[in-house]
Description:
Elements: E1 2-10, H1 15-25, E2 30-37, E3 43-51, H2 54-66, E4 70-76, E5 81-92, H3 95-108, E6 111-115, E7 119-126, H4 128-139, E8 143-148, E9 152-155
Antiparallel strand pairs: 1-3, 1-4, 2-3, 5-7, 5-8, 5-9, 6-7
Helix pairs in contact: 3-4
Amino acid sequence: MKRIYSVLVENRSGVLCKVAGLFSRRCFNIDSLAVGETDDHAVSCMTIVSSGDERTIEQIEKQLNKKLDVIKVKTFDENSSVSRELMLIKVKYNKSTRKEIMEICDIMKAQIVDMSKRQMIIQICDTPEKIQLLIHMLQSISIVEVARTGTLALPKCADTD
């Protein structure tokens, strides 16, 4: 069972280390972690994706709420949220594979953002599943390097908000 934690924390040095240490000490796994400043420079938002059974997920939320630097913890699952990830992927190409790569990019709604005579960098911003699919589709061609952000997520909009 996967859970997404949106954790508002004080924007100070050492906070990330404390939160990661909490997961490490209790042997909880972090599947994805993304941190960025919010509209308030004094507050950062950590988006943490973790998985485990119901008890583990409950424990993670309780432990996060105990941290002094944590302002607010929201949890939601993948079905009740909109999540995105950004990936840059560098691939080698030749005359015979260039058209195939461009077709894959078109189908996957990815953009070629840099190019040389033998390599190109492709950018995609989509769900983690679609990002994984693009990697799978390009593996047969020749992946040179991959850089991915962690998952970012917000709860879906509701009419009651």
